[in-house]
Amino acid sequence: MRSAVYLMFVLIATAVLYFMMGYNFLAAVQLTVYAGGIVVLIIFSILLTSQISERAVMAPLKQKILSSLAAVAGALLVLMVVLAFDFKPSPASIADSSIQSADSATLVVANATAGTAQASSNIHDIGLALVSYEREGFALPFEVVSILLLAALIGAIVLAKKEKLPINTEISDNTNNDSTL
Amino acid sequence: MIQSIPLSYVLIVSTLMFFIGIYGFLTRRNLVTMLMSVELILNSVNINFVAFNKYLHPQALEGHFFAMIVIAVAAAESAVAIAIIINIYRNFKSIDVENVDQMKF
Description:
The complex is a heterodimer of chains A (181) and B (105).
Chain A: H1 2-21, H2 24-49, H3 61-84, H4 91-102, H5 107-117, H6 123-131, H7 139-162, H8 164-170
Helix pairs in contact in A: 1-2, 4-5
Chain B: H1 7-27, H2 31-56, H3 62-92
Helix pairs in contact in B: 1-2, 2-3
């Protein structure tokens, strides 16, 4: 329960990170879907499935030590790689920024190149890119995700209904049970 | 504001989130907390996508859209997983992974 609240704070901090990077729509999506939807779902499932008196069951000590060792080793490895690697921006953006810095006299041209260099991420362009079929468009993953969401919807309905049918046949004399879960 | 922060720092944050999620996934025996660890891992990967998109390829939006699609997939996954968990709780009266071993071979 407490960990669910902490998870919510982590998700909100992630949304703040997206805000700092300038991706406002992604941060809004993160806030609504994660902090608004998934955390509420998780908190409700915790309330539904756990007794208040029972303690959290933890793994045995040996497994705990082993998994913490694995996690720390993996984190150290990845951190070493991250700190050792010298990240360079892609050549296209470097060229655009150099153009922009070189001739500051032609401010209009610089602004135009800056517009192409910094891909705009407002809602209008995101919506157009999601349904466009051109090279910068993302119509296929959009449709695939919509089919996946439909499948998840149907799956959730099937999972919720499977338990309901025998109950209905057992207590069919109870007439007003159609509003139950 | 973001230009004063190097890319490595964002990657360090996401790395720590990823391995905290791994640790929670390995040590917890409760299905809901394991699901929460998976959400943490997905979020750290999302941070990586968005950070690489912002710092290394600011003229493109691929990482942005990939993060959005991952968020949608995570939402669907957690909804179905919680439905399954509640069904398991109805059948077994517990959601510990130790107790749910009926389908174990």
